[in-house]
What we know:
This protein is mainly α and 25 residues long. It is 80% helix and 0% strand. The relative contact order is 0.20.
Amino acid sequence: RFSTLEAICKALDCQPGDILEYKSE
């Protein structure tokens, strides 16, 4: 799961924590 998040973060140039907070909403 995290490997996918890292790939997405690299593509979106953001941090894993930002995506986790985004999904929380």
